[in-house]
Amino acid sequence: MDPGRGASCKELVESWANFTICDTTKTQKEKSIITYLGEKFPKSSIHHVHELLECPICKRSMYPPFYQCPNGHTLCTNCKIGAHNCCPTCQVELGNIRCLALEKVAESLELPCRHQNLGCHKILPYYRKLKHEQRCKFRPYHCPNAGSECSIKGDIPTLMLHLKEDHKVDMHTGCTFNHRYVKSNPHEVENAIWMLTVFDCFGEQFVLHFEAFLLGMTPVYMAFLRFMGEDNEAKMFNYSLEVGGFGRKLTWQGVPRSIRDSHRKVRDCQDGLIIPRSLAIFFSGGYGEELTLKVIGRIWKEHSTS
User: Fold this and answer.
1) pTM for the whole structure
2) Cα(280)–Cα(215) distance, rounded to whole angstroms?
3) CA 199, 167, 232, 200: dihedral to nearest 10 degrees?
4) Cis status, amide bond into 186, omega within 30 of 0
5) Which residues in 169-180 are b (16+ Cβ under 10 Å) and which e?
6) Per-residue CA distances from 282 to 178, 191, 275, 279 (Å)
7) Tell me: the pLDDT tens digits for 118-174?
8) Phi-psi region for residue 202, left (φ > 0), alpha (ψ -120 to 50) or beta?
């Protein structure tokens, strides 16, 4: 082995210092997994199956090709590229060794969905399972509160409790609302605070966003509704928004977007009521000293014609 290459490999390992070290008992785990092929996996073994098929570096489920170093430490394609031909675990040169045995193990497995504890009872071949989990309706939702960098995920009841207790979000019951927004200096659009209100209507939950931002170079205000559930359920509803004052009025009618769509995605595609700041000032009396906007809204359920 070229001494120079070995030295550079050792240096590269320092950049992987924050990653979890690969379990050296992997071989024993492989043997235990193969024993279960064709059988139902006991719940106590499912965690070990997922662990075996996760890249020990990035902790993501692996797709072929699986790679390994000469000492048997596995890693995924992306982490192999990032390792610059140096095993992050034992510092030896990686080479281009495929872990074909583990690929065949994965291909032979049928495993429950990762979101089993949230209500999904599907059992799928490993590679189909990975694709299913990306769209599984039981996968947790992200917190819909856009005004903070919140990493909380969970089902709808969990998020409702989280929004109420941690974000102190206003909770209302009913399918009509009158939302009031007051800002002392309407010219400071960039520093406006996002506002969020949750409505319980038809036994479902909706979140009303109202915020200010720059659309290109134009300062605007925007209001839009999101549905706390799946997209196919959101399409069962319609909503309307109205804002006005001093002889002027804007109205909007639309379909609420599922919180599966990020707040930024909905805002950037402008799927909501947009009010230019100049018009918002007219709604508030035209003096520009204080902004007072009232957004009146209604949510209703579309009736099937079939």
Assistant:
1) 0.68
2) 15
3) -20
4) no
5) beeeeebebebe
6) 19, 21, 11, 5
7) 889 999 888 888 889 888 989 999 999 876 678 899 999 999 999 999 999 999 999
8) left
Residue 238 CA to chain centroid, in angstroms? 24
CA dist 129 and 135 (Å) reads 10
Beta bridge partners of 253: 240
Check: CB of residue 250 under 8 Å from CB of residue 194: no
222 vs 52, residue with greater confidence: 222
Residue 176: C-alpha distances to residues 47, 70, 240 (Å)? 46, 66, 10
Query: Using an 8 Å Cβ cutoff, are 106 and 53 in contact?
Result: yes
> If you write DSSP's letter for every residue of the chain in order, what string do you get?
--HHHHHHHHHHHGGGTTSPPPPTTHHHHHHHHHHHTTSPPPHHHHHHHHHHTB-TTT-PBP-SPPEE-TT--EE-HHHHHHTTTB-TTT--B-TTEE-HHHHHHHHH-EEE-TTGGGT---EEEHHHHHHHHHH-TTSPEEP--TTS----EE-HHHHHHHHHHTS--EEEESSEEEEEEEES-TT-GGGPPPEEEEEEETTEEEEEEEEEEEETTEEEEEEEEEESS-HHHHTTEEEEEEEEETTEEEEEEE-PEETTS-HHHHHHTT-SEEEEHHHHHHHTTSSSS-EEEEEEEEEEEPPP--
Which token pair is 152? Answer: 């909380």
